[in-house]
Amino acid sequence: MTLHNPFTATVLGIPRIGPRRELKRATENYWAGRIDAGALRAVGRDLRTRQLTALAAAGLDSVPVGTFSFYDQMLDTAAMFGALPPRVADIADPLDRYFAAARGTETVEPLEMTKWFDTNYHYLVPEIGPATTFALQPDKLLEELREARELGVPARPVVIGPLTFLKLAKGIDGAAPLDRLNDLLPHYRELLRLLAAEGAQWVQIDEPVLVTDLTAPELALLRRTYAELAGVPQRPSILVATYFGRPGAALPALADMGVEGIALDFVAGTTVNDVAAVPALAGKLVVAGVVDGRNVWRTDLDRALATLGTLLGSSGALAVSTSSSLLHVPYSLDDESGADAALRSWLAFGAEKVAEVRLLATAVHRGTDAIADELSTARAALASRATDPRLRNDAVRARLAALGPDATRRAPAAERSALQRERLRLPSLPTTTIGSYPQTSAIRQARAALRSGEITAAQYDERMRAEIADVITLQEKLGLDVLVHGEPERNDMVQYFAEQLDGFFATANGWVQSYGTRCVRPPILFGDVARPAPMTVRWIEYAQSLTDKPVKGMLTGPVTILAWSFVRDDQPLADTARQVALAIRDETVDLQSAGIRIVQVDEPALRELLPLRADAEQQYLDWAVAAFRLATSGVSDATQIHTHLCYSEFGEIIEAIADLDADVTSIEAARSRMEVLDDLNAAGFHLGVGPGVYDIHSPRVPSVEEITSSLRAALKAVPAERLWVNPDCGLKTRGPAEVEASLRNMVTAAQSVR
Ligand code: GLN
Ligand code: ZN
C-alpha cells in the first residue's frame, strides 16, 4: 500500500425517514399545518444527531453527511444549485418552495417523479432549460456538516455529481441538460472550496450514472468534469461513488483524473479484475462496496474477505463499505420481532450492515483472528440458511421441471378473441377500471380493528363484502361493462399475496422510503414459493355472485411481485420468477373454475427491473415475459387475460409488451398522449388495448369532451374492435365522489363515441 489509509469503514448513505417513520409523520403534520417549520426542522436535526452518533459509535471512521433529506436528494441538489423550476420562485418560504416543487400546490405543477435507477426509490426529476440560472445555495449541506463536526463525528459530505444530476434531469425549452455542464461546474468548484473551508477532509460525489451505458462524448464530459473539480486548489479529497453496477469504461477514465478515491459496487457486478485492470487505481483509495446496500441478506464474510484481500494488492488504500446507500433497506432488525431465530440470523438491515462493514474493516487491517467469534457466527448463519428446509420445495421444483413448452402457449390470438367475444358479448369500446376503488377510511379502520383484535376475521370479511357490494352497485349504476371487486381487502398489491404464499416473510417494521413521505414495507422472499390455498377466489366469486356482468379477477404478476420485494440472492431471479408465476397460474385456474371469465394480471413493474445496461436487457425481458406467460397460460382460450402496465415510459420494452400476449392490455397513456399506441402498432401489436383515457393521479374530474377527444385520438391508432375504455391506473388513492363523477363522464364519452 502506497497511501496511508484515510479511513477504513464507511457506508455510502443512510436512511432518513426515521426508525419509527418520525420524519414522515412530522412532514405530514407540517403539510397539514399542525406543526411549524421550526418543529419539523427539529425532528430532522434530532434524527440526524441520533443517527450520526450511532454510526460513529458503531466504528465507522468516515460518516456520510448530507444524505438526509426532507423529500429527495435530487431535489436537494436542484435546490443547492438554484435550479428549482421558475414556477415555484414566487413562494417566499424556502421550505414551502421546496415542497411545492416536490408535490405541487393548487396552482403549481410538481416536478415529475421517476425511478432511481433500478431501485424502488423515486426521485424528482429536475427541469433544466436554457434559462436555468445556477446559483449555489449550500446552506443545508454546510449546516449538516457543521452539526456533525460539533458532534465529533468524522463527517464526509455527500453530493450528487454534476453528470448524474444533469443526465437524470429533464431538458425543457429545447435544452439538453448536459449542455449546461459548463455553467454548472463553477458552482461545484465553489462548493468544494466551501466544504474544505468548513473542515471537510473528504467529499463523496455520487455518480451512479457511470454504471449505465455512456456515449463517447459523455465519457469525454466525465474526464472534463473531474479534471476541473480535481483542479480546485483548496478542496477536500474527492471520492467518486459509483453504485448499482459496473462502471465499465468510466472506471479507467475516472482513474486517470486527479480524484483521490473511487467507490465501487462489488455486489452488483464489479469484479476484482476490473480494478486490477486499471493500474492508476494503485494510487487511489478504493472504497469497496462488499456489503449489499439494497438487499437484506447477511453478508458472506468469507467471500467479502476474499474480494478485499485481492483488492489490497491493486488499490492504493482500501476502505470497506456498503455497495450503495442504506436508503434502500430498513433501519434495524431490532424492530423485527416476528421473524423466527433462523430467518432472523440470515438477515442484515441497516444497523447490522454497518456492523458487518466494521468487522470486515477490522479483519482487513488486523487479520481475521480479530473477528474470529463473529466470523463463526456468520458462517453458522449462512450454513443454516443453505440447509433450511423452507428454502426448497421439491413439489414446486418438480412441477416446474415437468412443464413443457405448451405451458406458456395459448391458441393464436385471433382464435382466442373469437371465443371470448362469443362468450362475453361486450359492446364495442367496452368500459372497465383497473381494479382498485377508493380505499376509504371505513376500509382502513376495519383493517386496523382486525389488527388490534377489536373485530374478528369473520367480522372483517363481512365489512369487506359490504364494500365489494357497494362497488358492484356503483359500477352497475354507472353502466360499466366489465366490473371489478374493488380490492378493498388488499393492503398492498404485493404484500397481500406475499402474506398468503409460502417462501415469503412480511416484516412488521421493515419500512423503506419509496418517495417523499411514502414508505413501503417490501416483503422478504426467502424460500421456494408455493401457494398453499387460493388467495383471491372467495372475494371475486362473491363479487361475481352479485352481478350478471363479467367481474375481472385481479392478480399481481410475477415480475411485479419480485420487483417490490426483497428477493433471495441464492438463485437466479429468473428461477424465483418461475415459482411465483406457477403460484399465480394456479390462482388463475381456480378463478376460472369458480366461473370467472376475465382475469387481469398486473405488471406495473415490468419496466422497473430492466437492467441498466443494454447488453443485459434481452435476457431479462426473456425471463420476465416467460414468467408472465407461464402465469397466464393455464386458463382456457375462452378466458380473457388482461394485464395492466403503468409508471413508465414503455418505448424500450414495447416488443416485450406485445410478447406478453395478453388479450387486453391497459396502459397508462393519459400523460404520454397516446404515443404508446403508435409504438405498439409499430411493434406489430394486434390485441386489445386500453390506453388510460384520463389521469387518475390528479383529483380533477375529466370532462366528457376531454375523454371523448382522448378516445377519438386513440381510434386513429387502434380500430374500434380492439379499443377498451378505462382510466390509466387503479382508483385506490382517489376520493369516492371524484371517482363516481369521473367514471360517469368516462361511460358517457364511450357511449357517445360508439
Ligand atoms: N389493480 C391495481 C389497482 O387497481 C393496479 C395498481 C397499479 O397499477 N399499480 O390498484
Ligand atoms: Zn397502474
UniProtKB/TrEMBL annotation:
EC identifiers of the protein: 2.1.1.14
All copies of domain Cobalamin-independent methionine synthase MetE C-terminal/archaeal, residue ranges: 429-751
Keyword Hydrolase appears in the UniProt entry: no
InterPro entries: Cbl-indep_Met_Synth_N, Cobalamin-indep_Met_synthase, Met_Synth_C/arc, UROD/MetE-like_sf
UniProt pathway: Amino-acid biosynthesis; L-methionine biosynthesis via de novo pathway; L-methionine from L-homocysteine (MetE route): step 1/1
Protein family according to the UniProt entry: Belongs to the vitamin-B12 independent methionine synthase family.
Protein name: 5-methyltetrahydropteroyltriglutamate--homocysteine methyltransferase
Gene expressing this chain: metE_1
